């Protein structure tokens, strides 16, 4: 079963923060070791202080409400990462002193509650509110969402005021609409101002979403460019082929490969990458990298024919003679034209 911290403080599970503080104050004063001489008092006092240390902390209380003492002290996973196990430091007097400002049980503590300082003497009464630290979340977006942009809906839970007097808060769900610009780069921070927990003495925190690319099946984004890989045979790498690619915006692109595909060769297709942020009409490039699949076996006759082909290329163009190679390619293209379509000689 584990320890029931609500039972120790003798309060209900839906008690407010003020109810928790009142219960702890009464019990801590009543079971203070300097008031009672019973040796069991110290252990009871520590349990009371531990119960307040858990329920007085919003995160610890939320974990305890969902997973109990076992989950709280073992640690649990969360959407933002692993929540570390909770361990009470064991010094009840330290908790008592942090709460009351003194370790003495005989101090005139009621004076502050009976005659509190006027609000205008406090910074909050003069209109000054300290802003809570920003809350950061990772926003994973698909390349499709980044390409088109739009609005991303995210559900959050936060403390909101109850009633017109705004004296109490409770956890409520809220849907945030996050604007996504086409082509937004990874690491971009999208700020939702003051969407954190509401608090009468503090300004709600900003919620910051940090953009991160979700892995895609075929594409990788590098800056504004898209990188993809195509598999071709050795024959296609030497004789040419046509690559068919389905783009992010659901178009079919056919790219002819007429060059010889050598190691580290890349085919660049201008304007088929990701939109450039704030310049939607302009896009990056598509870069195709190749993986050449070699045949596992070649018959002897095929090897002899390839040997003759490479020999003819060697004697016709030679090594390091690009001009001669270009003339051979031009002559080869001319010979491929149908005789009926050839221009008459001058």
From TrEMBL:
PROSITE patterns: DNAJ_1, DNAJ_2
Domain annotation J: ranges: 4-68
Highest taxon of source: Eukaryota
The keyword Ribosomal protein belongs to this UniProt entry's keyword annotation: no
UniProt entry tagged with the keyword Chaperone: yes
Keywords: Chaperone
Gene coding for it: LOC108562626
Lineage: Eukaryota, Metazoa, Ecdysozoa, Arthropoda, Hexapoda
A Pfam cross-reference name: DnaJ
Name the UniProt record assigns to this protein: DnaJ homolog subfamily B member 13 isoform X1
Organism: Nicrophorus vespilloides
């Amino acid at each position: 079963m584990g320890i029931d911290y609500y039972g120790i403080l003798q309060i209900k599970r839906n008690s407010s923060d003020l109810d928790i503080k009142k219960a702890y104050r009464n019990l801590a004063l009543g079971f203070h070791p300097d008031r009672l001489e019973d040796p069991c008092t110290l252990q009871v006092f520590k349990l009371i202080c531990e119960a307040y240390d858990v329920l007085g902390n919003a995160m610890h209380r939320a974990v305890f409400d969902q997973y109990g003492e076992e989950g709280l002290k073992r640690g649990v996973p969360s959407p933002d990462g692993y929540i570390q196990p909770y361990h009470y430091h064991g010094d009840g007097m330290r908790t008592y002193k942090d709460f009351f400002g003194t370790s003495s049980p005989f101090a005139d503590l009621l004076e502050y509650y009976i005659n509190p300082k006027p609000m205008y003497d406090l910074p909050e009464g003069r209109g000054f509110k300290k802003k809570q630290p920003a809350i950061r979340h990772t926003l994973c977006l698909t390349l499709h969402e980044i390409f088109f942009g739009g609005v991303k809906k995210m559900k959050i839970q936060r403390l909101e005021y109850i009633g017109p007097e705004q004296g109490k808060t409770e956890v409520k769900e809220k849907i945030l609409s996050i604007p996504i610009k086409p082509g937004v780069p990874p690491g971009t921070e999208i700020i939702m101002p003051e969407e954190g927990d509401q608090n009468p003495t503090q300004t709600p925190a900003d919620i910051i979403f940090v953009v991160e690319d979700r892995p895609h099946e075929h594409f990788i984004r590098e800056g504004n460019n898209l990188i993809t890989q195509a598999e071709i045979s050795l024959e296609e790498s030497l004789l040419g082929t046509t690559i068919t690619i389905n783009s992010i915006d659901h178009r079919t692109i056919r790219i002819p490969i007429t060059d010889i595909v050598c190691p580290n060769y890349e085919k660049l297709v201008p304007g088929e990458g990701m939109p450039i942020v704030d310049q939607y009409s302009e896009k990056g490039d598509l870069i195709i990298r190749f993986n050449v699949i070699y045949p596992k076996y070649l018959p002897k006759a095929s090897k002899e024919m390839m040997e003759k082909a490479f020999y003819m290329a060697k004697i016709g163009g030679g090594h390091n003679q690009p001009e001669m190679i270009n003339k051979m390619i031009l002559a080869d293209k001319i010979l491929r034209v149908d005789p009926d379509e050839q221009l008459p000689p001058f």
